[in-house]
Amino acid sequence: FLANVESKKRVTHYNLKHINQLAKIFQCSPKDFLPDTPLD
């Protein structure tokens, strides 16, 4: 699963529910997984 969502060749990516679950697991803020500036 992780290899698929991190691959630029696949259309599957993390969604906000995934990011929120990861934040709960790692006891951090969801924004820790997001960039500070928009991506191109």
Automatic annotation (TrEMBL):
Species assigned in the record? termite gut metagenome
| UniProt name for this protein | HTH cro/C1-type domain-containing protein
The organism's lineage is: unclassified sequences, metagenomes, organismal metagenomes
